[in-house]
Design a protein that fits this description.
The structure is a single chain. The protein has about 475 residues and is of the alpha+beta class. It has a domain at about 30-210 and about 420-475: Aminopeptidase, CATH 3.40.630. It has helices spanning about 5-15, 30-35, 40-55, 65-75, 150-165, 190-195, 255-270, 280-290, 295-300, 300-310, 310-315, 315-325, 360-370, 395-405, 425, 445, 460-475, and strands at about 80-90, 90-100, 110-115, 140-145, 175-180, 205-215, 225-230, 235-240, 245, 325-335, 340, 345-355, 375-385, 390, 410-420, 435-440, 455-460. The strands form four sheets. Strands 1, 2, 3, 5, 6, 7, 14, 15 and 16 form a nine-stranded mixed sheet that branches. Helix 3 (about 40-55) crosses helix 17, helix 8 (about 280-290) packs antiparallel against helix 9 (about 295-300) and helix 14 packs antiparallel against helix 17.
Length: about 475
């Protein structure tokens, strides 16, 4: 189909989207944020994060009680009480609450972060700005593992609670701070909260890690805040190959390692069909609305996105992951004892991420079908969670997006399906509308430091991030 014919078809079919109007900013509550000296608040937040990054909560082993106590001590300075709840030896969650004035008008708003951080290769970082240094360099960047994922956001959330208290904001609902352990490995901290404490939390809405503002994401000069409203599910498994053990000196067909290689080729060769989630259509619509021109016209129309944009999305691994069910080998587990011994069983560890509508059972059935002609293949599932999502027709989502954009004309904020997996996946089945947004604006180079080396966040981001989150919380929680 030619581009001209596509445009004519779109006009004929009225294929442009018609979005619902966002919730407007409430009148009269901006005075609380306008009264704060944000530069001083940002300086304080920077120092708090510096100290938090020096608390060793590498997972494994976690030791999140250290981090929970750090936050508890911070809050106590402003008279905010909190609970440090142990879910395993040396591993704890934190709950702190600012109560509503009088009878709450609705269920609580929750600010969620995780205390644990992934390990870091100490030798790969500069000596003076190592992963546990918390150093604030001459440029105002705060260095350390967790600066972006996600102690930086955790401190912004904690300081939001502090400033709600200091500014005497009259709340029409409880605002709860949640800091949990073990998000990076088994989600044990959030599971403990959901299973044992959710009846007294009952979060109506929740903000957690998710999208950041990425500069020049699609177009030069445009920053996009992708707010996660949905997350792919996960199927984690071991694909085991079995065969007769033997001597390594004599190649024999159909040994376990040979069968595993054949099965891995079958899995890696699968060709998943693209499925664009409604949230991505909406994000592209907002990007196109600001971009304008022919490109903007296309991005605002799902039919044209399908015709002209899907191929570009499939060509890049990050966007391809957002529109397909993915499976990839992430490790191996063999039983060989020596180079000259062929073991009777070897296994590949596979991580599958699933779009809404694809259950772990469906993906497992697909993998079995792909490998059905290879003898000795079996699967052992270690984790299976279906995708879930929240509506973006929500006042808190609108507040987050509105405050992220502010008065700038070079910033867009909209919903997206996250290819990752966070604790929000556990909150949504409880009826909580969960959104993922870290209000930091970063380059793609800075984004790449998450789980890598040289992770850091700027003082400017901490200052603006605190103001964005504070204003969004006040928009939906302050008594007018």
């Amino acid at each position: 189909m030619t581009f001209r014919l596509a445009l004519l078809t779109c006009f004929t079919l009225s294929c442009a989207t018609t979005p619902a109007p966002p919730t407007p900013a409430p009148a009269g509550v901006e005075k609380y944020a306008n009264a704060i000296d944000w530069k001083k608040a940002g300086d304080e937040t920077t120092q708090v994060l510096s100290g938090y990054l020096q608390v060793d909560t590498f997972n494994p082993p976690g030791n999140e009680t250290r981090g929970a106590q750090y936050l508890a001590d911070l809050l106590a300075k402003d008279g905010i009480t909190s609970e440090v709840i142990e879910f395993a030896p040396g591993r704890s969650n934190l709950i702190a609450r600012l109560p509503a004035v009088g009878t709450p008008k609705e269920k609580p708003l929750c600010l969620l972060s995780h205390i644990d951080v992934v390990p870091a290769e100490l030798e790969a970082w500069p000596k003076e700005t190592g992963p546990l240094s918390g150093v604030v360099d001459a440029n105002g960047d705060v260095w350390g593992r967790g600066a972006l994922d996600m102690k930086g956001m955790g401190v912004v959330e904690a300081m939001t609670l502090v400033w709600l208290k200091r500014a005497n904001v009259p709340l029409n609902r409880d605002v709860i701070l949640l800091a949990v352990g073990d998000e990076e490995v088994d989600n044990l901290g959030m599971k403990h909260l959901v299973e044992n404490h959710w009846s007294r939390l009952e979060c109506a809405q929740l903000v957690n890690e998710g999208g950041l503002g990425v500069k020049n994401l699609l177009f030069e000069g445009q920053t996009v805040f992708a707010v996660s409203v949905a997350e792919k599910g996960a199927l984690w498994l071991r694909m085991k190959a079995n065969g007769e053990a033997g001597h390594g000196s004599t190649p024999v067909p159909q040994r376990a390692p040979t069968r595993l290689i054949e099965a891995m080729k079958a899995v890696s060769g699968r060709q998943p069909s693209p499925q664009i989630h409604a949230a991505l259509y909406e994000l592209l619509r907002r990007i196109g609305e600001q971009k304008g021109g022919v490109t903007g016209f296309i991005l605002q129309r799902p039919t044209l996105v399908n015709w002209f944009v899907t191929g570009k999305l499939m060509a890049k691994p990050p966007t391809r992951a957002g529109i397909t069910n993915t499976c990839q080998v992430t490790g191996f587990d063999g039983k060989g004892s020596a180079p000259n011994v062929i073991p009777s069983q070897v296994a590949a560890i596979i991580d599958c991420r699933l779009l809404p509508g694809t259950t772990p059972e469906m993906m497992l059935a697909e993998l079995k079908e792909l490998t059905k002609d290879i003898e000795g293949i079996e699967f052992e599932v270690s984790n299976g969670d279906a995708a879930n999502e929240s509506t973006w027709q929500d006042p808190f989502f609108d507040a987050l997006a509105r405050q992220a954009v502010g008065t700038r004309t070079d910033v867009v904020a909209g919903p997206v399906l996250s290819p990752g997996y966070t604790d929000s996946l556990l909150a949504r089945p409880k009826g909580t509308r969960s959104y993922g947004m870290v209000p930091f604006e970063v380059t793609q180079e800075e984004l790449a430091t998450m789980h890598g080396r040289n992770e850091r966040v700027s003082k400017q981001n901490l200052t603006r991030g605190l103001e964005v989150l504070f204003r969004a919380v006040v928009d939906v929680s302050a008594a007018q």
